[in-house]
Specification:
Layout (H helix, E strand, L loop, with lengths): L3 E2 L11 H5 L4 E8 L2 E8 L5 E7 L5 E3 L19 E4 L2 E5 L6 E4 L7 E2 L6 E9 L4 E8 L7 E8 L6 E4 L4 E7 L5 E7 L9 E8 L5 E11 L1 E6 L5 E5 L6 E6 L2 E5 L18 E5 L2 E8 L2 E8 L5 E3 L6 E8 L2 E7 L6 E6 L5 E6 L14 E7 L2 E8 L6 E2 L8 E5 L13 H7 L4 E6 L8 H4 L9 H15 L8 E6 L1 H12 L5 E5 L5 H6 L8 H5 L7 H6 L13 E6 L8 H13 L3 E6 L9 H19 L14
Parallel strand pairs: 1-32, 33-34, 33-35, 35-36, 36-37, 37-38
Antiparallel strand pairs: 2-3, 3-4, 4-5, 6-7, 7-8, 8-9, 10-11, 11-12, 12-13, 14-15, 15-16, 16-17, 18-19, 19-20, 20-21, 22-23, 23-24, 24-25, 26-27, 27-28, 28-29, 30-31, 31-34
Length: about 625
């Protein structure tokens, strides 16, 4: 049957918002529990709560915690490291009251380990010889910044006691196998963890007190300290310009399998991991090159590295246990999966899918890695063409383009299968997913391009990427759009304000006033703009020059804004001010507020409203009618 001819954007697609969200879960931390496995699942259809799941050897699954239990940490606001499994016991942070609990393994209710109070916790680590947990603690008082420190928590329950303090931030508490030493990393304002951190090691006395803390590495971004089974400290450092793996013994640092590749990631969420040990000399590690990730087996003594033949381009984890490697794998053609790799047979099997989606490959648009000139540098992106076997464009028509600007801005995108991208390509949009200067995955020098240049480099790369695609005849130069969230939303607003390239834009909890962000945000990022823009408040004029809110006289482009009413990272007044500026100019504008969401949307109904609302808005501006029955947001 011949495809139906219809304008781009109006194509009928089986990839609907409802289908994307029905039964969808976000797969998180995985850990062995005896013969079983446990992991976390974020569930949009349950109000965004994170459930705790157990899988038995026979393949059966069960929730260990019923609603409203929510395994989530809010340390550093972005959280992470909310779960720990050790010694046959499960410990977790509950988002409802921020306390630490021990979860039951055979029925019953969780047992509180910490009292009610102003604390948040992350990365609980079992110190079985002293009958306690070691964790990151964050104490919130009524005034000033919260205090971050390492704390000791008795397993019998009780108030946390300080173990190490004095720095602005702590991460990765790691106890040696014999329990005699503790490692961790710290950093201080104005640094972020991907700029400059310190690695510390201390001896623990018989009572568990920290003695003789020694800084063993600094002057670089250090990531994931971990002890090998024979007690050798390993970690990732970017001192050569790439995040590479090191081991530290006899007071010296030695690189393990050095190469121009990234074995680390920006620490937006605590507890991130890129490697684990099979034994004292064998490491399984993930590393990225050019936006694609691999899983490799590394001989720690010789550095010999063997990439494993797996159909994935991104890996979450890995976790090694009893001859198996468990990880969350993402391919270019299917939703992410929890995978069990049998090291004896080399075979892998899927234990859990983030979404059961039976989609014919004819519908799937796979990303093409492209690079393009931007100023005096080369920038990178993944280009996804429109793809729908049931439809064809009208003669001579070029597709509209949706440029995607990732958040962070110190973040990255990759070519793994993303249903929101397929949502657009199956309706007739081309998508350009940009790794602008400042993105991770291309070495420290590329990441540092944003130093003092946020709102310039990232914007230029998105603009030049759109132009490059249009010049290749892959998109209609008159129908270029841009969308992004958080820092990506700021890039969107700068592109619309300071450049005349895009017909419309969508800002998801984006920033319009940099000065307001510098003056009113949470501790973790409160000095981030000192590096990205200029020291605040001395650089006030630079902030004003790069804030779209103060240059709305140059803004002549429709925009839609999506905002969480409880956002502490980018407060709602940022969107409100930009919306009012567009109203005052009489430009088409839509403003959608989700009162019960924070920074990023977790609830299914809100995710759907944002996705469909953006499509409906672009349809109105670009002149096509979506095939979906969409409740469009009101446009002023």
């Amino acid at each position: 049957m011949a495809p139906t001819t219809a304008p781009y954007g109006s194509w009928v697609s089986p990839i609907t918002a409802d289908r994307m969200l029905a039964g969808a879960v976000g797969l998180g931390s995985v850990a062995p529990l005896g013969p079983d496995l446990v992991w976390t699942e974020s569930r949009p259809t349950e109000g965004g709560r994170t459930a705790l799941v157990r899988r038995r050897p026979d393949g059966s699954r069960e929730d260990l915690l019923a609603a409203p239990w929510n395994v989530r940490s809010r340390v550093h606001e972005y959280g992470g490291a909310a779960l720990s499994v050790a010694g046959g016991r499960i410990f977790f942070s509950h988002d409802g009251d921020r306390r630490l609990y021990e979860a039951p393994t055979d029925g019953g209710e969780p047992r509180a380990l910490t009292p009610e109070g102003p604390w948040r916790f992350a990365a609980p680590r079992l110190d079985s010889t002293r009958d306690r947990l070691i964790a990151i603690g964050e104490r919130h008082e009524s005034d000033g910044e919260p205090a971050n420190l390492l704390v000791s928590i008795p397993l019998a329950g009780g108030a946390p006691g300080p173990l190490a303090e004095g720095h602005d931030f702590y991460a990765f508490p790691a106890l040696s196998p014999d329990g005699s030493r503790l490692a961790w990393i710290t950093w201080d304002h104005p640094n972020m963890p991907w700029q400059d951190t310190e690695l510390w090691v201390a001896t623990l006395d018989p009572d568990g007190a920290v003695t003789s803390p020694t800084r063993v590495a600094d002057g670089a971004s250090i990531f994931q300290p971990a002890w090998s089974p024979d007690g050798i400290l390993h970690y990732v450092s970017d001192r050569t310009g790439w995040w590479n793996l090191y081991r530290h013994e006899d007071g010296r640092e030695r690189a393990v399998a050095p190469r121009a590749a990234e074995f680390g990631r920006p620490l937006w969420n605590l507890g991130m991991a890129t490697y684990d040990f099979l034994d004292a000399e064998t490491i399984f590690a993930t590393y990225g090159v050019g936006g694609r990730w691999r899983l490799a087996r590394i001989d720690a003594a010789t550095g010999n590295t063997k990439d494993l033949d797996l159909p994935y381009v991104d890996f979450g984890g890995p976790r090694v246990h009893d001859g198996h490697v468990y990880f969350v794998g993402s391919s270019t053609s299917a939703p992410s999966e929890l995978v069990d790799l049998d090291l004896e047979t080399g075979e892998h099997r899927v234990l859990r899918r983030s979404l059961d989606l039976d989609l014919d490959p004819a519908w799937i648009s796979e990303g093409e890695a492209i690079d393009f000139p931007s100023g005096d540098r080369t920038a990178y992106a993944f280009y996804y063409p429109p793809k729908n076997p049931d439809f064809a464009p009208e003669a001579g028509e070029l597709p509209p383009l949706r440029v995607r600007s990732h958040g962070g801005p110190t973040g990255a995108t990759d070519p793994s299968f993303k249903l929101p991208i397929q949502y657009w390509t199956s309706r007739g949009f081309a998508v350009l997913d940009v790794n602008y200067g400042g993105s991770t995955g291309y070495g420290r020098a590329y990441r540092d391009l944003l130093a003092g240049a946020w709102g310039v480099i990232d914007v230029e790369d998105c603009v030049n990427g759109a132009r490059h695609v249009a010049e290749r005849g892959l998109a209609d130069p008159a129908r270029l759009t841009i969308s992004g969230g958080s820092a990506g939303g700021y890039t969107v607003l700068c592109a619309l304000t300071f450049h005349d390239v895009f017909r419309a834009g969508a800002s998801h909890y984006g920033i319009g006033d940099l000065g307001a962000l510098a003056a009113d945000t949470h501790k973790f990022e409160s000095r981030y703009t000192d590096w990205l823009v200029a020291p605040w408040p001395d650089g006030r004029e630079i902030y004003r020059a790069r804030s779209p809110l103060f240059h709305t006289d140059r803004l002549a482009c429709p925009a839609i804004f999506f905002q969480g009413g409880e956002d502490r990272v980018v407060p709602p007044n940022q969107a409100e001010k930009m919306v009012q500026a567009l109203r005052d100019k009489g430009l088409p504008v839509a403003h959608v507020v989700f009162p019960d969401e924070g920074h990023g949307f977790r609830k299914a109904e809100n995710i759907k409203a944002a996705l469909e609302g953006e499509l409906a808005f672009f349809g109105r501006i670009l002149g096509f009618t979506p095939a979906d029955a969409i409740e469009a947001p009101p446009i002023e």
